[in-house]
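ingest -> validate -> predict -> emit
validate: passed (alphabet ok, no gaps, 103 aa)
predict: started
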Amino acid sequence: MNILCDFSVYIIYFGIIFKYIFIKKDLCNDSRSYFIYPTNEFCYQHFSYLCGCDRKLSNVEIAHNNKQFIKSYKYCSKIIEISDGHIKFITNAEKLAHIHEYG
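emit:
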């Protein structure tokens, strides 16, 4: 009986893996599957929904801004950085300066 239960769990597990690798591989390469992006009402200049700016952006501009968000996310999620063979600790002040540089 235990073998039957274990076998059914393995079948379900490998079925899910098969589905995501072979059937939904386009979905896995799309960053919109992993991040929640701001809506069209979001002002990328002020990082706010409440400012009075003109927020009419094309889909290309929105995609570019979202890529910039991902770059900032990658940088701000780092704790250390290796450059020129030296290990450097990234402080919160440097992360904030990077975000203000972007904005």
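The mean pLDDT is 76.
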